[in-house]
Amino acid sequence: MSLLSSYVDKTVSVVTNDGRILIGILKGFDQSCNVILESTVERIFGTDVAMQEVAVGLYVLRGDDIAILGELDAEKESETDFQQIQAAPLRPVVH
What we know:
This protein is mainly beta. It has helices at residues 2-5, 74-79; strands spanning 11-16, 21-29, 35-44, 52-61, 66-71. It has a single domain, classed as Roll (SH3 type barrels). The protein has two helices and five strands. A five-stranded antiparallel sheet has the order 4-3-2-1-5, with no helix packed on it. A hairpin with a 7-residue loop joins strand 3 and strand 4. One of its GO terms (cellular component) is U4/U6 x U5 tri-snRNP complex.
């Protein structure tokens, strides 16, 4: 839990168990690793079209639904042209 506290008020990337990719500012979390993201966007990738970003705003995510959470590297973000990236969507995590 102390690892998550170092990410509060920073932009993070979250990959969910069902394959969604969410980018937002971590505003809080609890003992179950449920998280609150502010100014959240969902990145949607496809093999036929460029990456799309859909604004979802304030987002509460259950800790059980999180596969990966990490701080976003702002420098690499600004250097990457996401409109040129085409990729198959992530498949859901199977337990």
